Amino acid sequence: MTAELNALEPPAGGWTTDDLDELPEDHRRYELIDGALIVSPSPTNVHQTIAARLLTALEESCPAEYDVTQAVELRVSRTRSFIPDVLVTTAGAAARRPSKFAPHEVLLVVEVVSPTSVTMDRVTKADLYAHAGIPFYWRVETLQGIVIHTHRLDPDAAVYRATGQFTEAVKAGEPWEVAFPISRITPRHFQP
């Protein structure tokens, strides 16, 4: 099936990851939630700077068995696909140089909240990542200063439980020992 982005009607039965593969490379983020196509605008420079600096901070202490990357697709199912801002995968999965990861290959996903992604990042994606079995979820809030919220999966309930909220410095013992000041990921001209 060829995906027609300009069509008002979704493909019969909803969008699938096969349809995503047919979309043009146009610097938008295309994600799927139960066959519904979610199109996000290109991220702002503040959003991208925070994600890049967070990737660097995580990379510096990342154990050899993991790999840190950003904005690589996470294919949960045929009708669910996401592009986390930052993600940590197994080193074995990263060695394949994939353009997509499966949930079992991902240890941590991080979403940087933008004004247009508040509900998606705080509620929807957190719930869907938990149901996919991703062990850790971090959310970076930017609306009133930079705050990092860390979560660990409760696998029995398939929900995330809060493990920390950091406004000055991140000091987390999982998924490995991570410590860095929030100023390290703050863009030069950041204004909440």
Describe this protein's structure.
The protein is α+β, with helices and mostly antiparallel strands. The protein has one domain (43-185): Alpha-Beta Complex (tt1808, chain A), CATH 3.90.1570. It contains four helices and 13 strands. It has helices spanning 17-22, 45-61, 91-95, 118-132; strands at 29-33, 36-40, 66-69, 73-77, 80-82, 86-90, 100-101, 106-112, 136-141, 147-154, 159-166, 169-172, 178-181. The strands form four sheets. The chain has a six-stranded mixed sheet with strand order 3-6-8-9-10-11. Strand 10 and strand 11 form a beta hairpin. The radius of gyration is 17 Å and the shape is globular. The termini are far apart. Mean pLDDT is 91; it is low at 1-8.
How far apart lie the N and C ends?
43 Å
Based on CA atoms alone, the radius of gyration comes out at 17 Å
- Integer tally of domains: 1
The secondary-structure class comes to alpha+beta
Major sheet size, sense and barrel closure: 6 strands, mixed
H/E element sequence: HEEHEEEEHEEHEEEEE
- Order of the strands making up the biggest sheet: 3-6-8-9-10-11
Helical segment count:
4
User: CATH architecture, please?
Assistant: Alpha-Beta Complex
Total count of strands: 13
Please tell me the overall pLDDT.
91
* CATH first level: Alpha Beta
Query: What is the fold named in CATH at topology level?
Result: tt1808, chain A
| CATH-assigned homologous superfamily | tt1808, chain A
Helix percent band: 10-25%
